[in-house]
Amino acid sequence: xxxxxxxxxxxxxxxxxxxxxxxxxxxxxxxxxxxxxxxxxxxxxxxxxxxxxxxxxxxxxxxxxxxxxxxxxxxxxxxxxxxxxxxxxxxxxxxxxxxxxxxxxxxxxxxxxxxxxxxxxxxxxxxxxxxxxxxxxxxxxxxxxxxxxxxxxxxxxxxxxxxxxxxxxxxxxxxxxxxxxxxxxxxxxxxxxxxxxxxxxxxxxxxxxxxxxxxxxxxxxxxxxxxxxxxxxxxxxxxxxxxxxxxxxxxxxxxxxxxxxxxxxxxxxxxxxxxxxxxxxxxxxxxxxxxx
Amino acid sequence: xxxxxxxxxxxxxxxxxxxxxxxxxxxxxxxxxxxxxxxxxxxxxxxxxxxxxxxxxxxxxxxxxxxxxxxxxxxxxxxxxxxxxxxxxxxxxxxxxxxxxxxxxxxxxxxxxxxxxxxxxxxxxxxxxxxxxxxxxxxxxxxxxxxxxxxxxxxxxxxxxxxxxxxxxxxxxxxxxxxxxxxxxxxxxxxxxxxxxxxxxxxxxxxxxxxxxxxxxxxxxxxxxxxxxxxxxxxxxxxxxxxxxxxxxxxxxxxxxxxxxxxxxxxxxxxxxxxxxxxxxxxxxxxxxxxxxxxxxxxxxxxxxxxxxxxxx
Lengths: 292, 313
Fold this sequence. Notes:
The complex is a heterodimer. Chain A is an all-alpha fold. Chain A has helices at residues 2-9, 16-26, 28-45, 47-50, 81-116, 118-133, 136-145, 151-178, 181-188, 193-230, 241-248, 257-284, 286-291. Chain A has 13 helices and no strands. The longest helix of chain A is centred in the C-terminal third of the chain and has 38 residues, at 193-230. Chain B has helices spanning 2-29, 34-39, 45-55, 61-73, 87-122, 127-141, 144-158, 174-208, 211-218, 223-234, 236-260, 266-275, 279-307. Chains A and B meet through α6, α7, α10 and α12 of A and α1, α2, α6, α7 and α8 of B.
């Protein structure tokens, strides 16, 4: 696929802008999703420049509706919800990306091992089936009950239920690749297992792994916000979207903005990641795209 | 068929054993001293020792494990640390609202999402299709609590059509019962509906391109009859699969939905138990929810043969 694009692009020597325009037209979902995500990353990185102090309390300005002075209104302590929402971007993106990265790596290792070393498969996959039978938010809740709250604990608690989902995808790819003639001939030629895995099998798992990684990222952000909303997530003093929403619960009828605005940000972020994932899936795996 | 059912039934045992073992060792392998964490920040040494004794953590691991499995086999899920009540009784008391919420969500989602998917496939690339697909993409990104509070804000606070929060048991009358379930079911069902609508559309698109559909159309059968009887029935296996997979989504969502709408069900019980770090309850709930999920998967597998006579075991 990349070869075809290279040939198509090379002779014309279009300007960068024109090529970007082509890419967007060819793949609007990826472009929109990526653009939204880049904007959110910029917000997260530049938070100190964009927003004021997310912790400053001003009891006189309690529960002010959105206005020119407080774009997103204020909460029951008079804290600026705009500043808190901007800083919340950092928490959500950190959780989403770390969970996606960690569960992809662990899931990849387990999936490769299961797909390739058949003796391991029976045992490991039974364990994975068992973990998958537990609803992810409950598993995360149980893990958090047993430890002291913290961002890292939340990340680990979300990684554990996500790992089997990644491992399953990788395993099924490995199983289908193993039967391919070129793999069989490599085995017949005496290639060592390690080299076979890394050189012939691993590259085939990357496309589905990336697609799965985006879905894991989206679901991790939703679970983190859910956990914080329930009071079992990141410590309440950290301004995460889930925490802002949790703290706005009591006064929802008087100050609905403190829930609806951070909630909308979460939805947009998840939407951006999902769009990127859908776009990548259509591009990297046309067979699957036709089915969906 | 009988042999298949038996085989499938037996296959659920290892899964549930893994869940039970996992839940058991989670408490024992947790970093730090779980008894101290459960007892709370400023607990005395005696209080911590009491929690440890109550959880059986002061006995050898093998003995603990044997006792735990022995209890499980008899349907004993242990005793709550704080209320001293058996976990099974606490769960039984909270079962009705959760069952009602899950079932009504299932009904709402299936009744709305399947027609949406059929319509989208029938009018593929048209306006209806685009709207349904936009809903499917958006719905999947919507956090349950945002939809929940959004619905409360519009329909309860602004319009005053439906109660804000709470739950009425069916024993108090059918309409009050339904009234309190409408908004939570929609909030809980949004992602589920997105999933079902999407797969219905995809599966229908595939079936609608088959020769027998062209034959049915060309011999003049009514469109509705072709869509519903010829196409939907043949497209049903993936749809039923996704309805089953989605139950997992519902179970996770129940915890959040019940908190948003203040429904005293299993989800609320979970959250209360977590906030008090009442681990035996959390442990029991995990087993119950996982068991429900495994049972649904089993039913789905068994339903294939009924839906598609070509599938024989």
